[in-house]
Amino acid sequence: MTDNCALRLFPILLLGLALGACEQAARQPFESGLGPQPRLPAPQQALIPTVNIAKARGWPEGLLPEVAAGLVVTPFARNLDHPRWLYTLPNGDVLVAESNAPAKPNDSGGIKGWIMKKVMKAAGAVTVSANRITLLRDTDGDGVAETRSVLRERLNSPFGIVLIGERLFVANTDAVVSFAYQAGQTRIDGPATKLVDLPAGPVNHHWTKNIIASADGKRLYVTVGSNSNVAERGMAIEANRAAIWEVDIASGRHRVFASGLRNPNGMGWEPGTGALWTVVNERDELGSDLVPDYLTSVRDGAFYGWPWSYYGQHVDTRVKPPAPAMVARAIAPDYALGAHVAPLGMVFSAGQNLAPAYASGVFVGEHGSWNRTPRSGYKVVFVPFADGRPNALPIDVVTGFVQGDEAYGRPVGVAIDGRGALLVADDVGNTVWRVSAASR
After folding, report:
1. Which pTM does this prediction carry?
2. Of 124, 83, 125, 31, nearest to 381 (Cα)?
3. Residue 113, pLDDT above cutoff 80
């Protein structure tokens, strides 16, 4: 038995179960699951899913992530509390959502649920949520935040953040709220105004909710992940989930903009076409080669398959009852990022501040797999674009988060700072990293 199955993370009672799970190693090169036409092999199913987590450790003194040639990485801010999401304000201040999952008393029951709790604890995902947004300010422009302040606390697992005029909107796990905000403000004590409730409750499987504003500032788009892997709890608790909502800011009225997206997170507007794009975490427990997580444009009214099918009309036979009419509606996403990489953050590039190679495209923060052998993700990649669409395979930009069976860090949110550098939230390393051109 090797460490690759991470058996040391579990009590001896799980040894026999984990042995069976370890047999589901990848059967095709990882590159086969990338790009606009990924290769999709036959599913592999097992009683117990593959478990191959990198145990959270944090960064040893003196070590940094690795970056692509021509780039340099430095810590923008250290000693944060599970930083998950980033947002750059117009004045250059950087907001960080320090957040983790809320209490989910009715989630993850049974033996599989118990295993998952152990896995998430090993991955560094079981910590008390700080429930705050922290403001970081680089006062002298040296690429390091000299000051930090708690902008707002006592939130409820906050994630997405966006400023519209003089209102700062925050996506808690159960609602979008807003606060009065003035440029330069370092503390918000005023009351919250609720815009819209979001699906949450005692079962809240995918708790992160992200938001992005329309160009005219009149609408919000909100990501709402599914409440299960493949609707194993029934469809009643999936109402209005696995979707992106469109919310009218003036009234709070909302509708499902696009559906069948198992767990969308990062969003962005493609600069040339103005199209909405998102990254999505696809389903688990079909083997190490399935299903590729993806990056896709989001069409109004489109259905992307979950739970009945994946990557277009590939039927998932685990979902009961079947729904052939829904499968017939499903469209395939634009671009596969690879199986189980867990894309969370995404941001479109802002010109040639890093290098010409990164002038047009999207940066994606891949949180990393827990159920693939060998592991995938645990890095930040760049997907080049041309004419408003991906046109090449991903480029590794920030790596080195995993060494052996230990995770020094896990990237989540990504953002562009006021001077065009890339910021990366690392929720295991409790750091926001700044990636800039080596000459800057």
Report:
1. 0.92
2. 31
3. no
